[in-house]
Amino acid sequence: MSGERGVLCRGPYGGEGVSSGGPDCVDPAVFEVVRQGRAPLVVCPLHLGPSLLVGTGILWPPVIRLVGRP
Fold first, then answer.
1. Distance from CA of residue 58 to its chain's centroid?
2. How far is CA 49 from CA 44, 54, 58, 70, in A?
3. E strand or H helix at 59, and its extent?
4. In angstroms, what CA-CA distances link 6 with 1, 17, 31, 60, 65?
């Protein structure tokens, strides 16, 4: 995932698959949050905090990588 451009934010919850309805946020992803047993959650700066609080499978302490620029 690192280095890819044009990846959209997956919002704070990190829904996956067809049933998730896709991302509600149209901003580009800037951060990648590592999750247990799931693909990393890519989020914009606005959704970084909420994703740490309510995201599925977020590790604690969180592991966050910078993958883009706002």
1. 10
2. 10, 9, 12, 16
3. none
4. 11, 19, 13, 28, 16
